[in-house]
Write a structure and sequence with these properties.
Strand 4 (98-102), helix 4 (108-116) and strand 5 (120-123) form a beta-alpha-beta unit. The chain is α/β, with parallel strands linked by helices and 316 residues long. The protein has 12 helices and 10 strands. The chain folds into 2 domains: 9-56 and 154-303, Rossmann fold, CATH 3.40.50; 69-146, Rossmann fold.
Length: 316
């Protein structure tokens, strides 16, 4: 592939063909929003947390590792947890050395994932930006190949494969709700749909990176905290996804941490889905009324991650 590929439908389709045998095609289920205590309406849920490693991230990880040559020093990534687990998993599958930097806010479930895949794990700093700076210093020292969690063309192309699957499985949807951290997932999906459906970004009020960027007309620093800080709280959105967002994302809505926690509880009570906070954020926008569909609007929600220890299976 071109070292700087275009992020469009053709290159997303090409990337999807390259990574297909390494990733799962995750299912879509049809439910009623009334099952969660909301106003009854048909709702499609894309269960992307069933992907390898418990999140959507292996799509971008394999896109990078299959199309970019790793040196003897291997690959390095900074992550709140899910990207690091995906890089560790892909590197393990492909026989490549991996070093992962994460901040101290990373959950125990995600740390266990990364260690379990055999990567070297370094915990440093308070937030993602600190881990990213440490990973960049490591790259300069060792020559390892950096794989950015969201601001890398191959990452967006891999994540865009979610859109291919969803369009094939539910071609009639009008609207898709997607949680946003750095924007690699929603950027890839929005590039795939290219305005053919309504794409709505969902962020915690405590980490309004895309919301603030759209208001400012450019990526800007935003607060980076809250319940989903290990997945939805980079300092700013990626420069590669931002023009895509300006063209193809209708709006960014903000949800309270309490609404995210409530969506987690309702997912568990209704479907026995144990979503992490970032994985439940998109549904929180619908259940809390921050996004209100029009009558007859056909809505899908992406459930993107489930790396949590919220369920205690030792308790009887």
């Amino acid at each position: 592939m071109n070292p700087f590929p275009s992020i469009d439908r053709a290159t997303i389709a090409e990337t999807e063909a390259q990574i297909r045998r390494h990733i799962r095609r995750t299912p879509v289920i049809d439910v009623d929003a009334g099952d969660f205590g909301a106003e009854p309406r048909p709702l499609a849920l894309k269960l992307e947390f069933l992907q390898h490693t418990g999140s959507f991230k292996p799509r971008g990880a394999f896109a990078n590792l299959l199309t970019r040559r790793a040196p003897r020093a291997g690959v390095v990534a900074a992550s709140g947890g899910n990207h690091g687990a995906a890089i560790a998993y892909a590197a393990m599958r492909l026989g490549i050395k991996a070093t992962i930097f994460v901040p101290r806010v990373t959950s125990a479930a995600k740390l266990a994932r990364i260690r379990g895949y055999g990567a070297e794990l370094i915990v440093t700093g308070e937030v993602y930006a600190d881990a990213l700076a440490a990973s960049e210093a490591f790259t300069a020292q060792t020559g390892a190949l950096p794989v950015h969690a969201y601001d890398q063309p191959e990452t967006l192309l891999g994540q865009g494969s979610v859109g291919i699957e969803l369009e094939q499985d539910r071609p009639g949807i009008d609207t898709l709700l997607v949680a946003v951290g750095g924007g690699g997932l929603i950027g890839g999906i929005a590039a795939w749909y290219a305005g053919r459906i309504r794409i709505v970004a969902v962020e915690p009020e405590t980490a309004p990176t895309l919301h603030d960027a759209l208001a400012a007309g450019r990526p800007v620093d935003a607060p980076a905290g809250g319940i989903a800080a290990d997945s939805l709280a980079p300092r700013r959105v990626g420069t590669l996804m931002f023009p895509i967002a300006q063209r193809f994302i209708e709006r960014a809505v903000l949800v309270e941490d309490a609404a995210i926690a409530d969506a987690q509880r309702r997912l568990w009570e209704a479907l026995r889905i144990a979503a992490e906070p970032g994985g439940a954020a998109a549904l929180a926008a619908l259940l809390s009324g921050r996004y209100r569909p029009a009558p007859g609007e056909r809505v899908a929600v992406l459930l993107c991650g489930a790396n949590t220890n919220a369920v205690d299976f030792d308790r009887r």
